[in-house]
């Protein structure tokens, strides 16, 4: 027995080190992200960065986290998965961050899944509605936003029930993001005994729409789902509105399409926003009837007065507030396990005017539909 004692002690020490929840005692807590700070969807990176930091700066100035500061450490990935992988390795192994937060994109997040599974690190509020973040394979994944499936289902219900439209096509990005939306669309249409009349795709980070456009135009769809990035979507819409077969079609854009950037891009292309529907996972950032909107507007004005307000920075601001609140409610030592528990038990009324409920590994479970008229987003009142 005495001969085995050193081996038993060794095993015990290894198990203790492996299973012990690390305590973060440093004055500054770092949460890290990989964002498109350059490239075709640079606006996404800018919006997330300003939205998050507007609340982090406020939290630090007002000592919201028990005499600790919180910092947002960001590396640029240009919306390219291999760069996201390198950035994530650096954040985890070099920077020793507390949590990963606010990643943008489905293909970029999917590329780092093996690391996330291995390292068991908190991964909060990725800007993607992908289904693979909403299963039970890893309880360290906590989403803020509703899923792409919920967005598409809400749009289909509105179109088929309210508008009585059933000739539907899809234009999508040919990668994990586009395929997520494409598959969800097919499955949800099947439930209503509907099918696509046409489909077309394009390569990520390009404006190559000609082949997809030709695939779709001859089918004369009444509705076209746009599951792509804002510049490519806008170029497709401009070309469609100049085509006799597509000029009266309704274009349905899910939240990742970046509604604010899209309407600006259409203006640059001298193209109107008529017959565009935008699904969103948060309410209107301009609705001053919501107290949380006023808080967002005030803090953005204070810390980022030159930045335009929008759905994406509003969503980033809200998720940053939830993150700070979760850490602030931790009693005793700050650890990752305690942080995850606090995220899952976020008070329902924390975001004054927006209800929160943790289910299906996400906190938001409502979809909003908007149209754009007279330089403002107007809520469509009859959405389900």
Percent range for β-strand residues: 15-25%
CATH architecture of the largest domain: 3-Layer(aba) Sandwich
Give the integer mean of the pLDDT values: 93
The end-to-end span amounts to 69 Å
Taking all Cα atoms into account, the compactness measure Rg is: 22 Å
Which ranges are low-confidence, i.e. pLDDT below 50, for 5 or more consecutive residues?
8-20
Helix content: 40-55%
| Class by alpha and beta content | alpha/beta
Note the total helix count: 13
Shape: globular
Report the major sheet.
7 strands, mixed
What's the order of the H and E elements? Answer: HEHEHEHHEEHEHEHEHEHEHHHEE
CATH class of the largest domain, named: Alpha Beta
Task: Specify the CATH homologous superfamily of the largest domain.
Answer: Response regulator
Q: Please tally the β strands and state the result.
A: 12
CATH topology of the largest domain, what is it called?
Rossmann fold
| Oligomeric state of the chains present here | single chain
Count of structural domains: 2
Order of strands in the sheet with most strands: 7-6-8-9-10-11-12
């Amino acid at each position: 027995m005495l001969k085995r004692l050193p081996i038993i002690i060794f095993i015990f020490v290894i198990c203790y080190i492996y299973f012990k929840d690390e305590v973060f005692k440093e004055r500054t807590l770092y949460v890290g992200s990989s964002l498109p700070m350059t490239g075709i969807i640079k606006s996404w990176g800018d919006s997330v960065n300003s939205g998050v930091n507007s609340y982090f700066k406020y939290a630090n100035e007002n000592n919201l986290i028990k005499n600790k500061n919180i910092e947002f450490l960001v590396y640029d990935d240009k919306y390219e998965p291999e760069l996201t992988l390198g950035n994530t390795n650096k954040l985890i192994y070099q920077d020793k961050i507390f949590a990963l937060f606010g990643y943008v994109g489905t293909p970029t997040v999917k590329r780092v899944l093996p690391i996330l599974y291995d390292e068991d690190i908190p991964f909060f509020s990725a800007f993607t509605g992908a289904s693979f973040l909403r299963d039970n394979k890893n309880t360290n994944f906590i989403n803020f936003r509703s899923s792409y499936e919920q967005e598409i289902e809400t749009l289909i219900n509105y179109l088929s029930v309210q508008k009585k439209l059933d000739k539907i096509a899809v234009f999508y990005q040919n990668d994990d993001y586009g395929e997520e939306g494409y598959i969800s669309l097919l499955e949800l249409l099947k439930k209503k005994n509907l099918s696509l009349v046409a489909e077309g795709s394009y390569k990520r980070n390009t404006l190559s729409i000609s082949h997809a456009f030709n695939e779709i135009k001859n089918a004369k769809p009444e509705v076209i789902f746009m599951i792509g990035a804002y510049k490519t979507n806008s170029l497709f819409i401009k070309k469609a509105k100049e085509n006799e077969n597509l000029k009266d079609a309704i274009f349905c854009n899910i939240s990742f399409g970046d509604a604010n950037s899209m309407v600006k891009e259409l203006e640059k292309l001298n193209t109107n926003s008529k017959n565009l529907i935008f699904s969103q996972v948060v309410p209107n950032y301009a609705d001053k009837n919501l107290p949380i909107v006023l808080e967002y507007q005030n803090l953005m004005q204070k810390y980022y007065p030159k930045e335009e307000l929008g759905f994406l920075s509003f969503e980033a601001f809200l998720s940053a507030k939830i993150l700070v609140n979760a850490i602030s409610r931790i009693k005793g030592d700050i650890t990752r396990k305690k942080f995850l528990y606090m995220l899952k038990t976020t008070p329902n009324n924390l975001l004054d005017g927006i209800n929160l409920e943790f289910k299906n590994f996400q906190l938001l479970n409502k979809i909003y539909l908007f149209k754009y008229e007279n330089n403002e987003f107007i809520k469509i009142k009859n959405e389900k």
